[in-house]
Amino acid sequence: MNAIQPAINHHIPTTRRLSRRVRAQQDIIFEAYRSSKGSNPATRLAQSLTHMLHLQIESIHTQKTITQSNLSSILEDKSNTPISSPKEDISNKWEEIHGSNDWDTLLDPLHPCLRRELIKYGEFAQATYDAFDFDPYSEYCGSCRYNRNKLFEKLGLTRHGYNVTKYIYATSQIDLPQWLEKSQVAETWSTHSNWMGFVGVSDDEESKRIGRRDIVVSWRGTVSASEWYEDFQRNLERFGHGDAKVEEGFLSIYTTKFKSSRYNKSSASEQVMKEIDRLINLYKKRGEQQVSLTITGHSLGGALALLNAYEAAATFVNLPVSVISFAAPRVGNSDFKDELHELGVKTLRVVVKQDVVPWTPGMVFNEKLQSFDEITKGLEWVYTHAGVELRLDARSSPYLKKGLQLQGHHMLETYLHLLDGFQSSKLPFREDAIRDIALVNKECDLLINELRIPPRWYQVANKGLLQNDHGRWVKPKRDPQHIPSPTTDSVFL
Q: How much is the average pLDDT of 154-181?
């Protein structure tokens, strides 16, 4: 396997990069904690945590602004360029791109081939939002708006060369209202299940380009950042065969099933694992030696992706398993992180510095408090991030508004915009970034006003209403091929 050469001068990888000022301040805090022998331990901990939270919320520096004089030329230039770059053959380096060396030397600077692959998987994760029926007045609220055979065609993702083979549905035995969308009308397609994503697989052409048959699993997340602290601060529950523990809300969504349910007679876990097993055996019988599993998700979807990766790696020996997550929260304890590593799961977490969701759960009690063992060792809710981190900064883009905006900084389209423009921690936002800037404002209001892109513009025309033959505006019936059905949401290749 040929080593991937960085596109520009190598700097310290993002995951090892931490502000020296922050490190120094943390060292001072920890030393103060250790040396304060006379004070009450709880008081010392509270004081130190206060300082640490101040360090977490760094001030927003002034960003470069775009003047009206050069704005028109920027927009005109970009409007006449393709939305994706030409595909490159990565068949001889796919293992490095998927973390065989923990992405060492590939993140800072960000290798162009890795950037393209990350955006590809990010767009698969974004598909779970774009195709999701959020309309509370729709009888199909909580379902996918499209048949699995039409999903990528409807969303303009056929260029990636993957086919959807299975839809995933989930429910929960714990009341988590911010993830479960329900219709407000009396008759509905399902009372306690939601579409949570899909399983897909690369076609022959794409498999040749990327060097193996790639099974992809994409998990839907939540788009609201403000409710995370309230909804996902629960107990840690045992998961797997060791000492790993994970947040019980995530685990409930992943493993709950109801015999009376049309869509969750089997759990999301059972659905996805059965499909992965089927695809592995299918291509093994065809004589294909190289098969990989890539799991992606944003927000809650990133948490479910880690649970899925843990289970898959423990079940399918010698299957390369990698996770590409965006805005993922902490999922479990340090044993969960260690067991993921022992199982060989490669995890790359893409994080925006200003997004609060990656701070949760465990905004206070987390891996940064290892020096407080005498107090935290008895607690069951100390959370730890797993994997390698690629950190992006919203201030780097000249197209985004200044200041902290919880919703905008959490949106996946914001992540993909920043990822497309990221070169390295030493270089500015790249001018030749090709991803459509307007996508940032699909579900938020983060683009500078000078761009004149309306906020929250992504929606069904006229919010789904159509004018009938009598001139009345009515809610149309969904095309039969797009009506959810537990018997037609999978396909045998």
A: 89
